[in-house]
Amino acid sequence: MTGLEVLFSTVSGTITRPQDVVVCFVHWEFVQNGYKCLGTGDEPRDGERKSELLPAAWNGNQDLYSLRYRSNDDRHNLLVKAIIVDSTLIFNVMDSATEQVSDLTVIVSDYVDEHHLQEFESVFRNTEDLAGKVKSRLLPSESRKKAGRKSDRDPEPDTTQEDPLRIPPRAPPSSRTPDWSDPMFTPGRTGPDPLGSDPVFVAGGLDLDPLGGRGPGGMIVDPLRAGFPRSGFDPSGGIPGVLPPGAVPPGARFDPFGPVGRRRPGPDPDHLPPPGYDDMFM
User: Fold this and answer.
1) Quick check: 126 pLDDT over 80?
2) Are strands 35-40 and 64-71 parallel, antiparallel or unpaired?
3) Cβ atoms within 10 A of the Cβ of 30, count?
4) CA atoms in the 13 A half-sphere facing the CB of 231
5) Is the per-residue pLDDT at 238 higher than 60?
6) In DSSP terms, which residues pair with 25 in a beta bridge?
7) What number is the average pLDDT over the span 123-137?
8) CA-CA distance, 138 to 80, in Å (whole number)?
9) What is the pLDDT of residues 65-112, one digit of tens each?
10) DSSP character at residue 11
11) Is this model's pTM higher than 0.90 or not?
12) How far apart are CA 218 and CA 210, in angstroms?
């Protein structure tokens, strides 16, 4: 916090309340990020000059602080107002050059020890947190970019970490990620291998192929591909005991309604007589 102690020592005699300490810190943060103070009030006055110090009577109003700042390159003119509301300070900053408006609410007790208002070593609390809020919420975005890497409190950017939002460079075909969209894909194999010893993403994959086009399985039972004898079955020739010859036109779609070539052993359960059918007393 280079320079803050010097600034505080110049105004410590005029500090009478915790809100003064917060405004002093915010003023120092503006100076650290490329601004100088022009004076108090909303309108400019004759003979004003840019200064790193707080102007005279900067805390004369008991309800409102009003300070004007100009950037070192004269591209930004800021009107900073801080309104006292109970134990909080509500900062409002307007950039007259861009008409950009920003605000910040500060709970004074979080950053100031009111029992040591004139003692620099004890009066400030959580200065790093307050400095971060001032830079991110009050300073114009252009000023944050310029001053962000100049501050001795900010670490150097880590160039070893890749930005997750940056579009990655194109990789050669040999190093591209394999296509995981195929549920039958198994790394290290050239084709589908649903029965391999180390399948990946295969569990349930056959259910995604109802007709079993990629191998055994599927959700639709087809007597012609479910382990039953396949001896050139032709539904148009009829099924003994089920369909007469010619019942199914040649080439027509046919969905069998029972196992082909196999009859149920024994009598049909539907044909069994009910229990006690021959009891004359029933």
Assistant:
1) yes
2) antiparallel
3) 23
4) 5
5) yes
6) none
7) 93
8) 9
9) 999 999 999 889 999 999 999 889 999 999 988 888 999 999 999 999
10) H
11) no
12) 4
* Nearest of 34, 37, 29 to residue 2 by alpha carbon: 29
Residues in contact with 66: Cβ distance below 8 Å, sequence separation at least 6, in sequence order: 40, 41, 42, 79, 80, 81
CA distance 121 to 118: 9
Report in angstroms the alpha-carbon separations of 87 from 38, 203, 270.
28, 62, 88
Q: Residue 159 carries which side chain, given as an amino acid letter?
A: T
Provide CB contacts within 8 A for 238, sequence distance 6+.
244, 245, 246, 247, 248
Question: What letter does residue 124 receive in the DSSP assignment?
Answer: B
Contact indicator for 38, 50 with CB cutoff of 8 Å:
yes
Q: What is residue 140's three-state secondary structure? A: coil
Could you tell me the pLDDT band of residue 239, with boundaries at 50, 70 and 90? low
Alpha carbon distance 81, 171 (integer Å): 53
By 3-state DSSP, what share of the chain in percent is helix, strand and coil, each rounded to 5?
A: 25, 15, 60
Output the CA torsion 116→118→119→124 (10° steps): 70
16-60: pLDDT as tens digits: 999 999 999 999 999 999 999 999 988 888 888 999 999 988 999
Q: Which domains does the chain have, with CATH numbers?
A: 4-147 (3.40.1000.30)
Cα-flanking dihedrals φ and ψ of residue 78, to 5°?
A: -110, 135
- Asked if 126 and 117 touch (Cβ cutoff 8 Å), the reply is no
